[in-house]
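Try this one yourself first.
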């Protein structure tokens, strides 16, 4: 697992994506302290604080809204999620 600044930046996350949120930037491979979240808001609403991009993420288990460092997220790509076959969780 990459350490420190060797870790690639978060890529391609956007509002509506499901993400795995890790407890730290470089978790131990045996770390089980993670959760699945749903990104809310629009990219222009993502906050950058001291060079750190913060995302608003809803914990899918508790419903709690959290501010999360984007570098601690991994976008989940779920098999079979074709655009025409997915029921949106929130309608615009």
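Now uncover the answer:
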């Amino acid at each position: 697992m990459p350490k420190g600044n060797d870790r690639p930046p978060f890529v391609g996350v956007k509002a509506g994506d499901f993400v795995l949120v890790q407890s730290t930037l470089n978790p131990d491979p045996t770390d089980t302290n993670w959760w699945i979240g749903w990104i809310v808001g629009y990219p222009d609403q993502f906050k950058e604080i001291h060079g750190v991009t913060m995302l608003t993420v809803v914990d899918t288990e508790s419903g709690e809204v959290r501010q999360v460092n984007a570098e601690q997220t991994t976008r989940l790509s779920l098999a079979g999620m074709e655009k025409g076959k997915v029921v949106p969780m929130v309608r615009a």
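Discussion: The mean pLDDT is 76. The radius of gyration is 14 Å.
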